[in-house]
Design a protein that fits this description.
The chain is α/β, with parallel strands linked by helices and 471 residues long. The strands form five sheets. It has a six-stranded parallel sheet with strand order 2-1-3-4-5-6, sandwiched between helices. The protein has a five-stranded mixed β-barrel with strand order 15-16-17-19-18. α9 runs parallel beside α10 and α10 (275-282) packs parallel to α12 (312-325). 37% of the residues lie in helices and 21% in strands. It has helices spanning 3-27, 43-58, 82-93, 96-101, 117-126, 142-152, 197-201, 209-221, 247-255, 275-282, 300-305, 312-325, 344-357, 384-407; strands at residues 34-39, 62-63, 72-77, 106-111, 132-134, 156-158, 179-183, 185-186, 205-206, 226-230, 262-266, 290-292, 330-337, 361-366, 413-421, 428-433, 438-442, 451-459, 463-468.
């Protein structure tokens, strides 16, 4: 985007945030203004919420996990699955009593759901206590929207913005201090027939490589050990930039930064997964040996109906090359069961692919119809009972594969990033390997956030057990 536009936008943001801080010093209910932020959905939503929190922090807010004591309440919503939408409507409805008891509280909604016309209309008509609604391409406008909502007490709705610019300089308040997300692009151009994302997040636009590299350097210098690059399709990074970089070149530049860290990324689209990308992972110092490559279905007929633009054979060709170049590669994927038109024979092709690839783990979903997508108009040939039966069959097959894969790791030594205490297990910590496999072991909480070596002593279906190797 135009540098002058970006600078002017940053100045405008800061002015509104300063004015909001002055206003909240008067409006606060307690000793300090408090904000409650709840995030639904994907990692991109988490990254967006971290930027919203960064702006709220600049506006003088502290944060609370108790929605009852908040002066500002925000739900960042997800539109990918119907269940997520239902949860949001239920939880928003419950806020009515808070608004009745504390009229000064400002309730806001943002994210992908707000970019759907029927949802925004329902919020407008049925939830009059929601005072601020903004869409996915409006984060840079949040300081102005927040200030005007608080000052004038009038409802603010801003959505449907199609802006090709990428606005930098938005402050960030990250949720963690050793694991973090780094968005490299926004939007999606793929238009898979089942997916609402291109309609609610817009077309692809990439951040400039020097900006991404500098943010990665800042995170590494601040002690981040696990950095995940985000995009709806990271493999198509670079669209709209001149000269156009590609994703592999960006990874190579970040990998050059000195430090002890892992670099991850998601999500990759198989149609854009190149040998250059695989080679970059194989030859790197810091890129995790974990590839999340959603195949969704093993049937070419269904892949065509999904508009995925690759075949079963092409997918397996990529996997074969990746395994040859990176022998210890951990592979994960997404699968949709029961897509419109899918028969049991089609589903069997998915099972066969799973058995051939032997994924470490899978994210599996029964198809959820999304209003506004082409698939929503397609004829269904399987009953809900059949889809549930297929789903259980898939889980059983993957459970056996995962158990077998984990068993091969017993006796090996794995570098593990220690993440947290295990709930309900005194003295037990858990961490992850470079392949994103969970490991549980006995250890002191002071280890959280550091890399240690663990000898694997036992394997369960999805989790490894081990013991720390003392240096």
């Amino acid at each position: 985007m135009n540098k002058k536009l970006a600078e002017n936008q940053a100045i405008s943001q800061n002015e509104y945030l300063s004015l909001t801080a002055e206003l909240m010093a008067i409006r606060k209910r307690g000793d300090e203004p408090l904000a409650f932020v709840r995030t639904y959905g994907c990692q991109q939503n988490v990254a967006d919420s971290e930027r919203i929190k960064g702006m709220l922090d600049k506006a003088g807010f502290s944060f609370t996990e108790n929605v009852e004591e908040a002066d500002f309440i925000l739900f960042n919503t997800c539109a990918v699955r119907e269940h997520a939408e239902d949860r949001v409507f239920g939880n928003v409805g419950a806020l009515k009593n808070i608004k009745r008891k504390h009229p000064s509280v400002l309730i806001a909604l943002c994210g992908c759901m707000m970019e759907q016309e029927h949802v925004a209309q329902r919020i407008h008509d049925s939830f009059p206590f929601v005072g601020l609604v903004f869409g996915t391409n409006c984060l840079h406008e949040f300081p102005k929207l927040l200030y005007n909502s608080l000052l004038y007490g009038k409802r603010q709705f801003l959505r449907g913005v199609t802006d090709e610019n990428v606005y930098e300089g938005i402050p960030i308040k990250r949720d963690g201090n050793f694991k973090g997300f780094l968005p490299i692009m926004y939007g999606c151009d793929n238009f898979c027939s089942y997916c609402i994302v291109p309609y609610v997040r817009g077309r692809e636009k990439s951040r400039r490589p020097e900006v991404v590299i500098e943010e990665a350097r800042e995170m590494i210098n601040s002690g981040y050990k696990d950095i995940c690059l985000l995009g709806q399709n990271v493999n198509s990074y670079g669209k709209g930039l001149e000269p156009r970089p590609n994703f592999a070149s960006l990874l190579k530049e970040i990998d050059k930064i000195e430090g002890d860290y892992w670099l991850r990324f998601m999500t990759s689209h198989p149609k854009d997964c190149t040998k250059e990308l695989i080679d970059t992972i194989a030859d790197s110092k810091h890129i995790s040996h974990h590839l999340h490559l959603p195949f969704q279905c093993g049937s070419n007929k269904i892949l065509d109906l999904m508009n995925r633009r690759y075949t079963r054979e092409k997918y397996l060709e990529i996997i074969k090359y990746a395994k040859e170049r990176i022998p210890d590669l951990s592979l994960t994927s997404d699968i949709i069961v029961g897509f419109p038109g899918e028969t049991y024979e089609d589903f069997q092709e998915t099972l066969d692919l799973i058995k051939e690839v032997e994924f470490t783990s899978l994210f599996t979903f029964i198809y959820s119809r999304r209003k506004g997508t082409p698939a929503a108009q397609m004829e269904d040939v399987a009953t809900d009972e059949e889809k549930s039966k297929w789903f259980r069959e898939l889980l059983k097959v993957q459970e056996e594969i995962a158990a077998k894969r984990c068993a091969t790791m017993v006796g090996t030594v794995q570098k593990v990033l220690v993440e947290e205490k295990c709930s309900n297990k005194d003295g037990i910590l858990n961490g992850r390997t470079t392949g994103n496999i969970i490991v549980e072991f006995a250890g002191d909480e002071s280890l959280i956030g550091s890399f240690i070596n663990i000898k694997i002593t036992k394997a369960r279906n999805w989790i490894l057990n081990g013991e720390q190797i003392k240096e």
